[in-house]
Amino acid sequence: MSDIPSTVETEIATEQEYVDRVYLRLEQLRAEAVANEAAGYRQSDARVPGALVERDAFVYHAAKRLRTLDSEYEGLVFGRLDLAEDKVRYVGRLGLRDQQMNALLVDWRAPAAAPFYQATPEHREDVIRRRVIRSTGSKVIGIEDDLLDPERGQGMVVVGDGALMAALSRARSNQMRDIVATIQAEQDKAVRAPGSGVTLITGGPGTGKTAVALHRAAFLLYSDRRRYEGGGVLVLGPSAVFMTYIERVLPSLGENAVTLRSLGGVFDGVEADEHDDPRSAALKGSLGIRPLLVKLVRQPPPDAPTELRLTYRGEVLRLEADTLRAARARVHEKGILPNHGRNRAAAALIADLWRLYRDRLNEPTVEERDSFVADMKERTELLEFVTRWWPQLTPLDVLGWLRDPAMIRRLNGPRALRFKALPTVQDVPLLDELRMLLGEPPKPKRTDPFHVIDGIRELTTVADREFASRQNVVRGENYDEYAHVVVDEAQDLSPMQWRMLGRRGKYASWTIVGDPAQSSWDDAAEARRARDQAVGRTRRHSFELTTNYRNSAEIFEQAAAVARRGLPGIVLPTAVRRTGVAPSHRVAGDLRSAVREAASELLDRLEGTIGVACVMSRRDEVAGWISDLAPGRLHAVGSLETKGLEYDGVVVLEPGDIAEESPAGLRTLYVVLTRATQELITVAATADWQKLLT
Ligand SMILES: Nc1ncnc2c1ncn2[C@@H]1O[C@H](COP(=O)(O)OP(=O)(O)OP(=O)(O)O)[C@@H](O)[C@H]1O
């Protein structure tokens, strides 16, 4: 081997020098932030409460700055622009200046970084050469150049064969990576769209919708930090597995102040993961369920007493079941929310008791009535009765009543409606609806992260500081004042889910990301109306992404056939990467062995992750088949759970069953077939399902 460094090595060494300078500066700034934090602690007299607040604000800001500087900056510097007049601009994950205040690194979200993503040979925006710098940690390992202006770039070194292809061919891990170094121009437009109103981002599978939505959240926080960090940004995705998959992306971009929730976790205190069967799910998702809930909150709790007995001046007074039921109905007719209605309920009972007593008097007077009422109001046995007869109800209590099919029948509910022991994902919007129908019980005091004891606010421990800098503010239960809401996989939201989100984003602007062709919700028109109601009548900006970056072209061609069958006339994205490996379709008598074999082959052939997908009802069975093979790399997933996820290799068991699993089955199969980046194998008992591919 020659000792003379190659062109690439020389260029890498040059960039390494610059990258080292940036890291050195980062270290200096970090040391300054640590010193500021320490100075903050010494700053004032801790015996004066006001001074503590001031001190904590100082420490808080220093701690925050430190967190930003401490984020895991894998590849802190990833871009370089060579501009006219020999100007060079470096682009990275955050902005840094040197001691003379010259820009060392431009934050990727700053306007000055936009040409890095948007310049093309036709619209160069002054860019002669764009360079993507690839690193592991702080070590530069590769360079990929793009010469946009060959005329002015004569003599410039151009190396590499495309940063994008290199990024797309890399093996996947269990967590999504940021794409900050290779955001493509059409994606960048959606990332940088104005924050106001509603931004709709659509595109087929693998077009980067999720990636774009997350980078957009980071962009908005950068562009108007006060607004978006103050109010908060809520990011919603379909499942807990999906949220785990994407949870590293924003921290890797230096952003921690974003709330990530799955649809099963929107209602505070519940983390639902299980799904209803398709029929029950359809009933629970439709607005048609609301009248049932309205009737439900007016029902007596199943354990409510059915008789009230009291004595007054030697007389036994008895209210029986019918009278109690009528009293309850009278209170509800007033339209008061049940959790705010207890005093009215007590008054209604006292009125009924008085009527009973009055009938036993010859000529009841107003004084006698007043004295009766006053006496009753003091009675502990009446108070105790009211507490049991008209308890403060939580949404979970009330939903639980529906586990009894007799209750569903009493309310004339549909027979297919089912409620399990634990709330399902489809129950969560019902819980939120019940929260509104019941009224909030008296709230516990809002938690203040700076609160120590009354009148004194400070952050006492390192953990407090750390927590406060991460949380920014502790949001109240079922917080509903988010400044921005990002909804991923929005095509699947049911009308009831939209209502729930609408409540969280009353004052928010929105980014709504989805692909109608992947929808597993059958009544698209009802869902769209509910969406429009949830987000309000603000301005819409729409973006369409057209390139599939995930699937090999060979895999996508087959998935596309299924999509066309489900939705004739559909416009599909273009897959950019060919691997030369076509999907393989296997017919087997022993499905278990065939699935194990296919999974083992993929584990051997590919780096990264492998998914085995099947109908929802067989997920646990299939998980059992493969549990010993490669925990960590190999995952069994139900058809609906594959939404938004990706694997290097995918085995699909009985695709035909997925197509028939629900009314939207073909679209679900399309989702499942578009999860693999490298290889797809199907396993089925017969080849019948393959007619879907023609
Ligand atoms: N510009 C890019 N540079 C590098 N990788 C990219 C780029 N855009 C997308 N990708 C990769 O392509 C894959 C698909 O992206 P993503 O999951 O965001 O797509 P999606 O449109 O949300 O897909 P789906 O609708 O199927 O859930 C991810 O691995 C993502 O990192």
Automatic annotation (TrEMBL):
InterPro entries attached to this UniProt entry: DNA_helicase_UvrD/REP, P-loop_NTPase, UvrD-like_ATP-bd
TM spans (from-to): none
UniProt keyword terms in alphabetical order: ATP-binding, Helicase, Hydrolase, Nucleotide-binding
PROSITE patterns documented for this protein: UVRD_HELICASE_ATP_BIND (PS51198)
Binding site for ATP: 203-210
Any one GO CC term of the record: cytosol
GO molecular function: 3'-5' DNA helicase activity; ATP binding; DNA binding; hydrolase activity
Pfam families (alphabetical): AAA_19
Name of the protein: DNA helicase IV
Lineage: Bacteria, Bacillati, Actinomycetota, Actinomycetes, Micromonosporales
